[in-house]
Amino acid sequence: MITAYDDGQIESTINEIRLKYKLDYIPLRFFDGSRPDFRFEELIEEVTTISMFDNKKLIHIKNLSGLYTKSSLLDNNQEMIIKIIEKGNADTFLIFSLVSKDIDSRKKLVKSLKKHAHWIELKQFNDLDIKSLIQSYNMKLNLNLSNLSINLLNQYCQTISQVKQAFDKLSLIDGPIDEQLISKLVVDSRNAVMFDLSDAIISKDNRLTFKTYDNLKKQTLQPSDVMYVLSSKIRLIYQILSLKDTDLNDNEIIKQIGISPNYYWFLSNKQVHHFTKKSALKTLFDLAILDQRIKSSQVDKKIGFEMWMLEFLR
To answer: What is the largest CA-CA distance in the chain?
Structure first.
């Protein structure tokens, strides 16, 4: 059982566990209990069935309900997973993890893990820890980054995951790396996440939406940043729908809206068909109301955006 403040901490610790117990050759099966598409039955089936290809199983279960405050499992499900924990299986390795959530020691599932599991609690990294990690990567990869470059990375990277992602990109560069390159390659890459998420939401691609949203949560971006990009894009879609009802041709619409032909083609052929004028206006109205509620502290920005997103994707 691992508790941590960052997915990067979890990833590093699991890699250490796999090496320690010689499990690095076994595929890792992953379940995220906080995802809307999580199915407890699929988890139990995976845990209780015998692998056809390997003699051992390694299963990572993140943020399972029943471990943290304001979460619960159905009684039958809780009893089932507790029985599996207490009975044990020498050929099945279960790794439970809790990321950025408060453990609830009163819950039966937590008490069972306290009694039967090896418990690892990882402390939150502060700015000095992150800077030290950046310097460590810099020396390990022999990148010879300047102090200005290290400070820029330290401003951007708030978690272990972000440090790792940044150096994964920088390690591919041949030649010197300066602040301008870091800004372009690392910091500006956050914009791509926003646009990818807005595209996935508009297309109502649930799987891609949740995958991209997981990436977003590893960034320093806020839901309000995505809401701005999303609203801007839907506003353009509404304008295109409205102008297509007139006698204007595509070139005239492009000129009136003031976007590039390529972007107009993308919106017209890939995204406009997901809306009517009425549904586009409703979505813009809902996002505006959500923005007001977040700014007036009526709703938590993260929870509010996630609830809106789930409702929109229905």
So the answer is: 73
**Residue 242 clears pLDDT 60, i.e. is over it:** yes
Q: What is the DSSP letter of 269?
A: I
Residue carrying the six token digits 């300066």: 178
Residue 60 in this model has a pLDDT that exceeds 90: yes
The secondary structure of residue 199, as a DSSP letter, is: H
pLDDT surpassing 60 at residue 188 = no
β pairing state of 92-99 and 28-32: unpaired
Please give the Cα distance from 77 to 36 (Å, whole number).
17
Report DSSP state, residue 272: G
Task: Report how far residue 21's alpha carbon sits from residue 91's, in angstroms, rounded to the nearest whole number.
Answer: 12
Question: With 80 as the cut, is the pLDDT of residue 53 above it?
Answer: no
Residue with tokens 């390795």: 93
Residues 6+ apart with CB under 8 A from 173: 181, 185
Angle, alpha carbons 199-202-204 (nearest 5°): 105
Q: What angle do CA 64, 66, 69 make, to 5 degrees?
A: 105
Cα angle for residues 167, 172, 177 (degrees, 5° grid): 70
Dist. CA 274–CA 103, nearest whole Å:
41
Q: How far is CA 129 from CA 100, 159, 162, in A?
A: 18, 10, 13
Asked whether the CA dihedral 37, 120, 95, 113 is positive or negative, the reply is: negative
3-class DSSP state of 314 = coil
Is residue 17 within 8 A of residue 23, CB to CB? The reply is: yes
pTM metric for this prediction: 0.52
Distance, CA of 230 to CA of 202 (rounded, Å): 8
Residue type (1 letter), 77: N
